[in-house]
Each structure stands twice: as structure tokens, then as C-alpha cells.
Write a structure and sequence with these properties.
This protein has 276 residues and is α/β, with parallel strands linked by helices. Helices cover 42% and strands 16% of the residues. A 4-stranded parallel sheet has the order 3-4-5-10, with helices on both faces. Strands 1-2 form a two-stranded parallel ribbon. Strands 6-9 form a two-stranded parallel sheet. The longest helix has 22 residues. The radius of gyration is 19 Å and the shape is globular.
Amino acid sequence: VWSCDLVHSDKPNYIRCDVSKYRQVEHMFEKHEFDYVYHTAAEFGRWNGEDYYENLWLTNVVGTKNIIRMQERKKFRMIFTSSSEIYGDYNGIMTEDIPEKVPLRQLNDYAMTKWVNEMQILNSAEKFGTETVRVRLFNTYGPGEYYSEYRSAICVFVYKALHDLPYIVYTKHKRTSCYIDDTVRTLANIIENFKPGEVYNIAGTELHDMKKVSDLILSYLGKDDRLVEYRDVEPATTLEKKVDTSKATCDLGHHCTVNLEEGIARTIEWQKKVYG
């Protein structure tokens, strides 16, 4: 297994590469032969995509095009990480075939780039016979996610609660959070049952509001919510992400072994170690 990222690293089997730079991508694939490629490189998040939109579109869209170009030449199989954000303003149960049945409006640039990438992948499969599985991740969280203002809500809530900093909770949004170990296990299982052209939702099983997340964090830390500001709705994102994961359960053995309470506790303990 080789890994690739932007940072300098002394890890074994590591390649430094910016996916938005075709020459660097080409060099990587000319130097090594791969059977499968997990394409997870992306600029993450809605507000990050607003503030750094040029990086978002270059990395997410041009970067994916570069990987696809190499896939057309090298014929490796790809697993592409899309996002629950592609479902946009849809307010029903999110099954994988919804984008084919319902006109969707993506609500932010991040969502748009992920949907553009799915279309690029489908077009390449039709024109060049490339073989890719798409996965739409729903609110993966847990140890390993370092804090910034642009990271996931659970990461931000934990960090700010630990450091007694104010944060905002949008009470009307509902999510299905999936602990990192459960998401990764399902992603790994794709290799054992690779179905070209397939797309899967990968999510948690419990639909919860974001106040519950905040309350669990504060309770674990023995703190009250005096620094929490409650608002109804955050703009530019889906209100409720009601998701069907039955395909991933059937084909990939997807199941959740870590519930929200335990996952949040593990996340808090990890952040304590990282940030002292």
C-alpha cells in the first residue's frame, strides 16, 4: 500500500504529489503500478470551499480529472469518495438512485465539485471503459481529524468545548454520524466485492440532531452549555440527511460497531492527547 499527499513525510511507501498538477500525477503513476486507487484527495467543507474556492475547484475537479486521465491509460480500478452533500436540497430518504430521478440543487461549491466529479467518472466509464466505485460518505468523524474552523461539526464542538471557547449549534439539522473505523472497514471491503459503476451511501444508523452531539460532549467533559449559541438553521447545507445504506450493508458488509456516545468519548480522549 502506497499513500500520497501534499505534505513532506518520511513514512515508508509515501509519495508527495499535488493531484491538481498533471505532471506530478503522471510521474507518480509512471513510477508505480497500482491495481486499485482510493481517490480521497479533496479540499474539504462548505465554508472552506467559499473562502478558498480556487483551491477547491483545482484540487477537487482538476485533480480528479488528472487521476481519471491516468486511469484511462493505466486501467487501474478506482474507489472515489464523493459526499452526502451531493443530495443538496433533497428532503426525502437519500437512496443512491435519487440523482437519476430527481432534479437536485447542490447548495454549496463543495457539493458541486463532488457532483461534477461523479459525472466525470461516469463519462470516462462510458467513453473509455474505466472501472470505478463511488461512495458517498455521511459525516465520518473520530480520532485523526485535527481541528480547524473548517472541519466537521463534531471535531469543532469537541475542540471548543475542551478549550472553553464559544460555538454555534444549529438545532434543526439532523445527521447520521459514522465513526471512522466503521467507515474505513467498509471502504476496505470494496476490494473484495468490486462492482464497476456502483455507488454506495456509507453512513451511521442513528438520525440525530446536532444538539444531542453537543450535549454528549459537554456531559462527558462535565461542562454546561453557557458558551453555546443555539440557532435554527445553517445556510447552504441540507437540513436533514435521512439515508438508506442497505446497498452498502448487502454488498460491503457495512455496519456500525461504535455508537455515537462511544465514538464521541474516543474522539475527546484523542483530542486531549493531541492538544494536551
